[in-house]
Amino acid sequence: MDAVRDEAAGKRARGLDRAFEILDFLRQKRQALKPNEIAAQIGAPRSSVYELVNLLLSNGILEFTGGEGRVYLGRKLYFLGAAYENHFDFTRECEATLEQLADETRETAQFCMLDGNRYTVVRMREGARPFRISTDVGQSVPIPWTASGRLLVAHLSNEEILNFIPPQDFRLPGGEWLEPQTFIAEVRQAEREGLFTFNSIVDSFTHCFAVPVRGEEGHAAATLCLVTPRDDGIANRDRYLDCLKKAATGLEHAPSRPKRG
Amino acid sequence: MDAVRDEAAGKRARGLDRAFEILDFLRQKRQALKPNEIAAQIGAPRSSVYELVNLLLSNGILEFTGGEGRVYLGRKLYFLGAAYENHFDFTRECEATLEQLADETRETAQFCMLDGNRYTVVRMREGARPFRISTDVGQSVPIPWTASGRLLVAHLSNEEILNFIPPQDFRLPGGEWLEPQTFIAEVRQAEREGLFTFNSIVDSFTHCFAVPVRGEEGHAAATLCLVTPRDDGIANRDRYLDCLKKAATGLEHAPSRPKRG
DNA sequence: CATCTACGTCCAATATATCGTACATGTGAT
DNA sequence: ATCACATGTACGATATATTGGACGTAGATG
């Protein structure tokens, strides 16, 4: 995950960082794992992982589940996440907006944000004829693989973008190399036009539409997307973009705004 | 919070524990705070808190919000919490059950769980005539203050219960002292009857009904509650308990059950 | 039976995280 | 002007957390 972090090698990792590395790893895997497996797969010393896992267990951050000593994210995290959601109260409006988008277009609608230096689908509403979407809700995906990615980093300078995105994330799922300069050009284009659309990089049969949901600072705090069969997308391009833009405008008066205080 | 932890005094606190103490504290306060305020209010060294807050900020666990350098729970926690919720997929059923309960009774219905060694309302549906409920969603409350509390610890032995509940939590909000032996007796009664009801300890005008939602291990993983005006509650006691029990039975086939694997 | 891997625990060495303290700044009260 | 307080930063000492490696077990494989 954070291979970048091990700069100089030979250094000890801080417990806190390792702990959150473990949590993030479990989130990615979306299943309970044994401490031993975790250690092996994130490349951390076994003894450290056992120590940390036990600490996290006793705090309710992790829980035993799935038997055989496997652990997964714990209830405490749910409570903390709920407090965040309650504070930045975007869920209700978001859900309604996706609903409406799906109604208007019959296509799959998504609400997406950055998760650190990667991209993630926060909420999704499947369209009328659901097909296998390549990226599930909650999975982190390299920013350059997605249409939304072009919008979510548009507030950064070229140099900041290159520092922000892990270099290996420019390697596309098919194995091809996306030239960072090409990506940057697309970012700037998306910024000018206030939207980005392309034939999905991740699969070979969908077209993706993304528009920004701007936060208080004026830059894209999130995106709204449609994922459509290529024919449909190209045929309905203008109407779909209209729907997206209206929806995004509607959301911009709600998200990331503290409820009180 | 964990005054108990500082057993021998003079010891250093572990970073991980302090970190989660900070997170829990922010959750309780439900607002952004300056690192300095956090340090003062949880009684931790300022330098440690600054160090930890910066670490958590750089991990996305905390976020700047509210200006003046104030911090609050961050987006990463939301993602982790969503992963938990997704794994133990109880939300949908839970929401529907509360809806139905509120419809049938016109009273306030709650879904409650333990949060470590305290009690918390996870979800709530307000009744027909909403009144000021004393405990908000997400707040942690001493176990002995609540009807649900009697059920949530019923799987523990008497001794385990006394070790589990912080002693100071037997001091009721009015200042009176609830004798632990009295509490234990009520726990055993609740266990036998599979329910607990009483006039709220927290306020002077509501009656509370609680029934267990049993998990796979057979003990109360959560509770369903009704909070009613005292007259209503006493008048409709049997009907309300019927509704609650049916609802709980309905939930028991869903909660805390991993979706897959 | 011998060997290998997966799993968990224990332990000592040392790199370092925690914490007390001092310093710097701004603000408001006296 | 002087004091008190809140806020953030810097730094060294030392208690300790992280880590590699040893150890024990169990199951699978040859």
Summary, kept brief:
Chain A has helices at residues 15-29, 35-42, 46-58, 75-87, 91-105, 147-152, 158-164, 180-193, 230-235, 237-251; strands at 62-64, 71-73, 108-115, 118-125, 140-141, 196-199, 206-214, 220-229.
Distance from first to last alpha carbon of chain A: 36 Å
What would you call the structural class of chain A?
A: alpha+beta
| Percent strand of chain A | 15-25%
What does the overall shape of chain A look like? globular
What integer is the average pLDDT of chain A? 91
Strand order of the largest sheet of chain A: 5-4-3-8-7-6
Characterize the biggest β-sheet of chain A: 6 strands, antiparallel
For CATH, the homologous superfamily of the largest domain in chain A is named as GAF domain
Count of individual beta strands of chain A: 8
What is the architecture of the largest domain in chain A at the second tier of CATH? 2-Layer Sandwich
Largest interface: A-B, 46 and 46 residues
Instruction: List the secondary-structure elements of chain A in sequence, H or E.
Output: HHHEEHHEEEHHHEEEHH
Give me the CATH fold name of the largest domain in chain A: Beta-Lactamase
Oligomer category:
homodimer
Number of domains of chain A: 2
